[in-house]
Amino acid sequence: DSSVQAFLEHLGLPLVHPLNYTTDDYDQVFTSNEEHLSSVGEGVFELPPIAAASSANVGKKYHLLTNNNELLPTPFVGPMSPMELHDHSLYELALTLTKVGAPLIAMGELWLRLFAFYICPLCLLWMIYRDLCGNQKKASTTDTKANKSNAKATKSAAHDVDNSCNNKDMFISIVGLASSAVLFTDSLYVYEFGRLFGFSLWCVATVLAIRLALSLRTNPSDNVMTRTKNKNSSIRMPNKNVMFQSAIFVCISTTVVVYLQSKGHVGNPHSNAILHQMPHPGIDLPTIEPGLYYSKSNPLVSSIASNLKESAYTYDVQHGATPYLVSGDQRTGIPFLVNSVEDQQYMRVYVTNPSDSEHLALDIAFPFDGFNYGGKRKLVHDSANPVYLVLHGLNGGSHEEYVKDLVQRRRAEGSTVVVMIARGMMDTTMSGWNVFHGARTGDADIAARALKKGLTSLAESQSRPRRQVLVGVGYSMGAIVLSNYVARSGEHCSLDAAIAVSGGLDMRQNLNFHRSMRLWQPMLTFGLRDDMLIAKYARFYKQKLTRGQFLRMLRTTSVSALDVEAIVTYNSFNDLVHYYSEMSAMGDRIAEFGLLDTYSNSSECVADEWGRIANTSIPFAVLQALDDPLVGWRTIGTDKPQELVDSGNGNVMLLLTKAGGHVGWPLGMNPAANSWKWMSDSVRDFALAVDESMRSMK
Known about the structure:
By secondary structure, this protein is an alpha/beta fold. It is built from 25 helices and 13 strands. It has helices at residues 2-11, 26-30, 49-54, 82-85, 90-97, 101-143, 148-185, 187-193, 195-215, 240-260, 274-277, 299-307, 328-338, 401-412, 442-461, 477-489, 514-519, 521-534, 538-544, 547-554, 559-571, 576-583, 641-646, 671-674, 677-697, and strands spanning 63-65, 71-73, 225-227, 236-238, 291-293, 347-353, 358-365, 387-391, 416-421, 470-475, 497-501, 620-625, 652-657. A 9-stranded mixed beta sheet has the order 5-13-12-11-10-8-9-7-6, sandwiched between helices. A two-stranded antiparallel sheet has the order 1-2. β6 and β7 form a beta hairpin. The longest helix is centred in the N-terminal third of the chain and has 43 residues, at 101-143. Residues 24-33, 56-62 and 157-164 have low confidence and may be disordered.
């Protein structure tokens, strides 16, 4: 349609990757349209000073200046064989393979926690049934003792029946006891149901398991160790009854220890590892209330709050939440397992970050005009509806299911949606050494400025002011980057509004979120490392890291540990705290919750100052579930939410739900039928509230 052509013309960005454009007049074709994008925006963060100096223009584009002043060309992008990764050392490869068990163990524990709410009652019912059967059997055996001629046969028969059920009873008892322990000690279940619920189930499971363990008595002639069935073998195996009793003891002891540590403990200030210096928060239940927080002193934000639907920040069963998903783990994992959204049609253009001449892909989804032309529909650009700039999550892209859900729903309403592909993702070409890291805000800035310029130019060509709002939307890691960009750029922000979904304002608070590190991060780490670091950019890291650093990167089992080698070392950050501080919108203020009391705080602010988050100049909403199992509630950065939204000019809004998980919020009895509707509609409701408020105030 001509409206699409006009939008692309005024956007002025190439449809072909600049590195693939072979004609000699490239500068005349594209550069004239990008003059306004030839410099870095205000407040943008790209690299630490040391790394920025080494990446400065040294005369040859896309080369790296080493410590010996040698120019190294960009390595080949592509996978390396396992032997190449380990310098053809079988020993080093074997050590790396031993780490494969970490995500498998994490997955096993995660599945138990996902379904403990359903497993525990079923196991308890079986254990109660078996206990009642055992009592009846004892009574029957007692009645037959009077018949001395049949007593021996009766005891033998009862012993055989017991043995035939032992394995199943033992397994169900252990699983039931373990699942009840999860309900008793897991922070998400305690947050949902309280401590008494899990404690009651654990007590019942413990009593039943002990009763069963005591009833499984062996003959006096039996030993603790029993021989195998092979007569020629001298191998002795532990008696299964003793093993079962030991397992019950371990389960009970572990539960008691975990409970006693639920109040947390201080870190080790003498440890060389930063993560060990952090205090352990224990069970870590949220201390802030869900709801809508905003500054009543800001007229625009107050208008947005009044125009915002209550359903945009209220998630419960009364508002359609899936009733049988009862924890943040379930509300996170199940949507990603069952939801599927049809592929969307994108048109790709490229914008160049002037700080390092890296080319970024923007996937644009235009709405249809609503008419059917012989089985075909035209794409249009409707200047009356909001335009969305989407920043996807870690290791994602425009093909992510939750991104496609937003695109599909907003296209159907006439909005244009633009997805910024993080550098190197979705097999996009990298021309230099500066691979993705979460503290870089220049890419988001250049994409926002390009879109703002295009929308403004289009409006001017039609002799009208620009009324179309440009709304930034970030998910997970994209939300972290978006929040940081909005805070750092201040009054120079090129967006009209922004909403961060399941991101953190202070990611330093995730450094001691041990539950996430143990359960979720091993799987995320292996996926990210295998799909990105090893499959594509292994040669980049192998060139810039020492052999020891590179091998440690291959063996990490958490995102935080991976960041130490793959991000901190590669990009010359001082340490992990420095990286997370630069990555976070609230990373320049003193960390709350006593997080860094034993660490030499590098904060740029004094106590009670809000730092760069107070520089936010546009309506900025943070949509966060307090039961998020990946990005903890403390990453909101404070336990004083009202003071946060009142900071600066009061442009920050908090939309906090008690439940929802991480990029989850499933709806209905069949979550797959609704996909990510609640989340996508909350983004839309915020954008429409901003649009309506801005129009009314003009």
